[in-house]
TrEMBL record, chain A:
Pfam families: Cytochrom_NNT (PF03264). Belongs to the NapC/NirT/NrfH family. It comes from the Bacteria. Gene3D superfamilies: Di-heme elbow motif domain (1.10.3820.10). Signal peptide: none annotated. This is Cytochrome c nitrite reductase small subunit. GO terms for molecular function: electron transfer activity; metal ion binding.
Amino acid sequence: MLSGLNSFTVFLCCCIGIFIGLCSYTFYYANGASYLSNDPKACVNCHIMREQYDGWQKASHHAVATCNDCHIPHELVPKYFTKLKNGFWHSKGFTLQDFDEPIRIQPENRIILQKNCLYCHGEFMSLIATHPGNDRQILDCIHCHSNVGHGPAR
Amino acid sequence: KNVTQRKEEAKQHVFRVVEVTEDTIDPVTWGKNYPRQYDGYRRTVDTERTRHGGSDAFNKLDDDPLWREIFKGYAFGVDYREDRGHAYMLSDQDISERIKIVKQPGACLHCHSSTLPAYREAGIKAGIPADEAHRQEQIMKGFEIICAMPYDEARKLVSYPVSCVDCHDPETMQLRATRPAFLNAIRTLASSDYPVPHLPSIERWRKDGRKGEYDVNTMATRQEMRSFVCGQCHVEYYFKGEGKLLTYPWNKGMGVDQIEDYYDEVGFKDWTHKSTGAQILKAQHPEFETWSQGIHARSGVACADCHMPYKREGAIKISDHHVRSPLLNISNACQTCHHFNESELKARVELIQNRTRSLMIRAEEAIVALIHDLRHSRESGVPDEQLKEAQALHRKAQWRLDFVAAENAMGFHAPQEAARILGEAIDYARQGQLQALKLKTAAH
Amino acid sequence: KNVTQRKEEAKQHVFRVVEVTEDTIDPVTWGKNYPRQYDGYRRTVDTERTRHGGSDAFNKLDDDPLWREIFKGYAFGVDYREDRGHAYMLSDQDISERIKIVKQPGACLHCHSSTLPAYREAGIKAGIPADEAHRQEQIMKGFEIICAMPYDEARKLVSYPVSCVDCHDPETMQLRATRPAFLNAIRTLASSDYPVPHLPSIERWRKDGRKGEYDVNTMATRQEMRSFVCGQCHVEYYFKGEGKLLTYPWNKGMGVDQIEDYYDEVGFKDWTHKSTGAQILKAQHPEFETWSQGIHARSGVACADCHMPYKREGAIKISDHHVRSPLLNISNACQTCHHFNESELKARVELIQNRTRSLMIRAEEAIVALIHDLRHSRESGVPDEQLKEAQALHRKAQWRLDFVAAENAMGFHAPQEAARILGEAIDYARQGQLQALKLKTAAH
Ligand SMILES: [Ca+2]
Ligand SMILES: [Ca+2]
């Protein structure tokens, strides 16, 4: 029984090791370091982001906002935390190909997104309370403006 | 305008010039704090027509005289007009022949005026303690009392059409539902088993075990409130019992069939049709119910999204309080969600409306034919006893036709459902004719 | 799979292993170049049911026996099944009782097999020069000849169900329309005045002064082609004249009313109803026509968007050649455009389909009642002469019911239009009953 556990642990460690290895490889090969930069090309290194990248180039915010302006928090610590977290999930998804398509934005990331809209448009929206993160009170920008980032999905 | 000026505007907007309270009904006062919204609100006096809607109060009975037949024996057969902007709601009621030729109750005012202080006062007079803690009780009691009053008497207690305080909490400016009949009805709806996938707060309350009572003002989401404030008035209703208590018939659900079931069960009729003797139901502006059946509601699109869309005013974004036909304002009302050009969007709406109208005309003709046949049968001596089945079919058919006709979007709020209802109306009307014909044959 | 492999894949996918030409019908050969598409294509043998569709070829007449009455006197009253995957199209035709009990023409094969080489050969045999320059002429001539042949004879000339070459240019792999009846019909449609806002290339050709002839293969946009390749077969049709020339009745337009007008004008009927003597039209799979009335077509959404959506295989996106019900593949088929979850999207479709189905049942019952009444009238001696009007109403009603019933999406392709058509079907059927009843009465 003890040896059973041991071999399981070894097996688990191997798995984790291989997994980390794979992710690092992905990180290296898919120009992962650029993930930490602000250049939209960093995102499109991953062909899975191609559609959004192409869309962004034609969409209304092309000249005024990059991917990170909308998708990553503007405060320093949350910014790198989010990058790490998303970086991990995206690498995992990309490596294992275990994510559902079409890709849909996660609820937490949607809140970050809404806060970023307000980062730029807060004053314009100031007469209208927007409550990002509050399920009941939120006025969800994406309800009406889902196309601003990458143009219409259709 | 330059940048400085816009920045100034942006700062000023939250500044309150005057205090507003629960008792401030006059929109002019609120308008001092929120001049932009007030400007829009005032523009509801405008008159502009669209193909099937708009705000020109033309006479619907002249427009399509078949309706005089259909409404025979009822006040609607005498005066029935196209609705117009909120500014007119009280005066249009005052001048309607329907108020003059029939003794109407105070219940009529619930949706045509700013009634809260009147309700409250009446409640206090009737013995509810006058303190803040009993506010809601005062209102509910006063509502009962004023519903039962004769119209003329009740009319003296109110002086404004719908006002800011009817939709907004004066302190927080948050949306709220204030209308007693709606508060009662939405609670009843929540406790029914009727599926409401478009009303997430009700679905959640049900899933969480239906604890306590569903309270729209604390439980609804903001997006739901953007429809509920309209659902306070834009709904089918009846006056219940001797007390003329204004009631929305949602006990079994909000679909045309569920409402009919309810009326059948409580044995309600609006009037007895003069030509056929059938016990007819009158449908009235079931916009909220129809919207509920449509794809927009299901996708979380609220009344306010289309009828009070956001608009830019200088450096600030506000809700357009000029409540009106979205076809007069397609760019703000539709184009943020639908990236097609204006004429294309208009064409889409009109295609839907034309399909509805074409079936509606068919249903009108079928019902008028039935009325004609039934009258004949009666005149040729078939006893009313034997006509029951045909009269029941008349009731069913007309309820459905009227449900779509009285709804003010000519089918747009739920295109397929409107067509389905009209298909049923036609079926029942023609079946009624077959009945009548068989009886006539048998009688000879 | 890892990144390296996928970067490789992204490079490889255009590499051709074998040469394919106009004469390569066998999909196995094409499959060597495009194994992913071929894999999907082969999966059309799968069997899976949805609520109102799917690929299980159950017997529709057992499912709803009213249809035996409705089709009385016609081959459809004997054998009528749910359709299934493309892989079966040729064998399902072979085993259908409709082929066995009636002498069918070679025209049937146009949509059930890969016919191009057969057409070509027949054309050459009939004297069209055999060179490449006369390709299209050979095909059109051969089409005429094979249409007129007896089925059994023509059947020997073909051996595959729809294949790659029917939708793709073998050199460029671009989509193309190859089916003669479609090429004729779309040209006719273009030259009509029927509005086609959902087909921009036709609108453009008309606006540019209708110069020359509209040529679908050079003028249509890529997005239109993603529907036109399906419109080659998924359409209403009839066999014109003695030559049994397969024809799509679009001279006056593609709506249910325009097609009826056309048939009335040319005096066409599919058969004489056994019980009523009415001259009935049979509607067949008008998917393309119905889609044309819907909001998806109007928004530029093609058949292939839903029935052959893109799916990712490694680094590349390919079109899913497993053509099937989108309800078996909601994430790829719908969620790219609609950000709601799968069960919600399914519920939306089913709500639409249930509404359609409920009206359809009403229409079926009305028509069966009419058939019953008409038979009675005839049996009780009313001369056929006097029954004409009621028979005409039977024709009108059944044409409409069948148009919706034969369409395979249970209303989804154009929900409001389907309901409108059924509403009319009900109206005509009940009016027919009234006629019949009046005659019977008069006869007594
Ligand atoms: Ca109006
Ligand atoms: Ca099928």
